[in-house]
């Protein structure tokens, strides 16, 4: 139950944080002179608090309901951790209504931040299109590229897992997608957000060159 709660809370908070980050990009590009007013320290704390609060609602709501069902089938689940959908498969209770309600909740939790993200980037693209400076356009794309990359990776896996009908799911596919957005995405997350940092880029080049040179001499 603790494992499930933290998984739902952290996942839900991340979804809303991605929406808040898109708003941050919108303000930075579309209203650069007012950025320190619209995104001051107080506003940032408020946005982060709201995101964590909304994410915790998901954990507090779904965890006790899921754990209240009877599990009289196998004690083993075909998954890496105690995920809600995997647990429901071994329940001997009627979970059809709960699955429908959970589906609606997950759709809303994904669509609301996704609407904010799409709206923010629509205004950003319009602003970039109206820019006369090539340097300004390049800076805008660099600012947004890391966030867009992570949104595509994270939302692609989440939409498949929680919004696709059950007929599209198999145990093997669910486990593969789960590994993708629970392990691979967080692992490459720091790299995605720091790749435009010159110091990180130089360090990566040094590591790659040293590996290539070492491999060459070992041959």
Features:
single chain; 219 residues; mainly alpha; Rhopdopsin 7-helix transmembrane proteins; 79% helix
Question: In the CATH scheme, what's the topology name?
Answer: Rhopdopsin 7-helix transmembrane proteins
Mean pLDDT: 80
* CATH uppermost class: Mainly Alpha
Are there runs of 5+ residues with pLDDT below 50, and where? none
Largest sheet: none
Approximate strand percentage? under 5%
Radius of gyration over all CA atoms, rounded: 21 Å
Instruction: Please report the distance between the alpha carbons of the first and last residues.
Output: 52 Å
Label the overall shape. globular
Which structural category fits the helices and strands? mainly alpha
Can you walk me through this structure?
The chain is mostly helical. It has one domain: Rhodopsin 7-helix transmembrane proteins (Rhopdopsin 7-helix transmembrane proteins, Up-down Bundle). Helix content is 79%, strand content 0%. It has helices at residues 2-30, 35-38, 41-67, 84-88, 96-129, 134-163, 171-194, 198-218. α1 (2-30) packs parallel to α5 (96-129) and α5 packs antiparallel against α6. The longest helix is centred in the middle third of the chain and has 34 residues, at 96-129. The protein is globular and about 65 Å long.
